[in-house]
Amino acid sequence: MATTIPTSAFIATPHRCSTGRSSAIWVQKAQFSASSSSLGVSLSLKRPSLRLVSVRCEANGAGMPVIPAEERWMYEESEINGPDIWNKTWYPKAADHVNTEKTWYIVDASDKILGRMASTIANYIRGKNLATYTPSVDMGAYVIVINAEKVAVSGQKRSQKLYRRHSGRPGGMKIETFDQLQKRIPERIVEHAVRGMLPKGRLGRTLFTHLKVYKGSEHPHQAQKPIPLPIRDKRIQFVKK
Amino acid sequence: MNKDKIFKLAKGFRGRAKNCIRIARERVEKALQYSYRDRRNKKRDMRSLWIERINAGTRLHGVNYGNFMHGLMKENIQLNRKVLSELAMHEPYSFKALVNVSRTTFPGNKAVPKKEGLSSIL
């Protein structure tokens, strides 16, 4: 079958400074394997017009010095050609997860099913929606939840779901139902749900601090310009029967 | 192994495990066992990391990992998961082209909407 690969596919736009110049050639190879297999014809023609002419020493803003051939043996391969992005799995540097440059999302919790909303929130906080996901590094975004007291649960959970905590002393277990806790501290319901879905450990605890839950519809983070959280779950809206 | 070799391998260990031979010997033996096991585990962990990254990358384009790989296998595209994950991170347009190739081959199991009543017969 003839699949038309859009020409924009040949433009390798490195959106990270560490992309080496070898990316241009690899794009071509990847496209060759895709196109030749789908067309059933091996294209052995060179297509120089599509190869990007990149001035190597000026890639990345002249970060790579030109080393003459006689001195190549003195340097490591990564110093001559730049980092090898195709054989070493990428690991984020400190500049790739600066907290001040992370996205902020906002969710309105009114009439949303608690667990389904918490699951999407936890995914975004952990960074699992990004192709640059790394489990050991905090690559996720910040999430603001407003109208936390209006969060919905299905079935009889409103009166039957129990929230337990223990003070540590014998006989010190305290039990509350969903609606009692919602009257007392509504933010804690959403926090409890999301915390259970984040990893437990040092990293999980810092991820949890990226969740901001508020009772009303006001939040103090206007300066971060939060964008609405894209929710793909179709059953998240609570339908009153 | 003699003591010097043990202490050399015990650098950075916690507490007495780096200083006292009896404890250091145990911890070093364990550390060597872990490193043997983890040289094999690292290959598994890396592959699962690539798969997670590819999954995230394809879901940005509305396709999940399983359907994406199925489409690639049908098209006989032999790119491995390491390269696919690097493409997803560094070459977004090329990756989008791959996702489109996979989607044309295998559109995925779209749930057939149930038609009610008369329209189910028509």
Q: In words, what does this structure look like?
A:
The complex is a heterodimer of chains A (241) and B (122). In chain A, helix 3 crosses helix 6 (186-197) and helix 5 crosses helix 6. Chain A has 7 helices and 6 strands. Mean pLDDT of chain A is 80; it is low at 1-48. Helices cover 27% and strands 10% of the residues of chain A. In chain A, the strands form 2 sheets. Chain A has a 4-stranded parallel sheet, with helices on one face. Chain A is an alpha/beta fold and 241 residues long. With 122 residues, chain B is mostly helical. The A-B interface holds A 1, 3, 5-6, 8-16, 19, 23, 26-27, 30-31, 33-34, 37-38, 85-86, 89-90, 128-135 and B 46, 49-50, 52-54, 56-57, 59-60, 75-79, 82-83, 85-98, 100-101, 104-105.
Task: Briefly characterize the structure.
Chain A: GO terms for molecular function: mRNA binding; structural constituent of ribosome. Chain A has helices spanning 22-39, 77-81, 114-126, 157-160, 178-184, 186-197, 202-208, and strands spanning 104-108, 142-146, 162-166, 173-177, 211-213, 227-228.
Keywords:
heterodimer; A: alpha/beta; two-stranded antiparallel ribbon; 10% strand; elongated; disordered N terminus; B: 122 residues; mainly alpha; 5 helices
Q: Note poorly predicted spans of chain A.
A: 1-48
Q: Which residues of chain B sit in consecutive blocks of at least 5 with pLDDT less than 50? A: none
Helix content of chain B: 55-70%
Classify the helix fraction of chain A into a percent range.
25-40%
Order of helices and strands of chain A: HHEHEHEEHHHEE
Coarse structural class of chain A: alpha/beta
> Largest sheet of chain A, described in full?
4 strands, parallel
Radius of gyration of chain A: 26 Å
Distance from first to last alpha carbon of chain B: 82 Å
Q: Gap between N and C termini of chain A, in Å? A: 49 Å
State the oligomer: heterodimer
Beta-strand percent range of chain B: under 5%
Q: Describe the biggest sheet of chain B?
A: none
Largest interface here, residues on each chain? Answer: A-B, 35 and 35 residues
Count of discrete alpha- or pi-helical segments spanning 4 or more residues of chain B: 5
Number of strands of chain A: 6
Number of helices of chain A: 7
The coarse silhouette of chain A is: elongated
Q: Can you give the mean pLDDT of chain A?
A: 80
Order of helices and strands of chain B: HHHHH
GO molecular function (chain B): rRNA binding; structural constituent of ribosome
Family (chain B): Belongs to the bacterial ribosomal protein bL20 family.
Keywords (chain B): Ribonucleoprotein, Ribosomal protein, RNA-binding, rRNA-binding
Pfam families (chain B): Ribosomal_L20
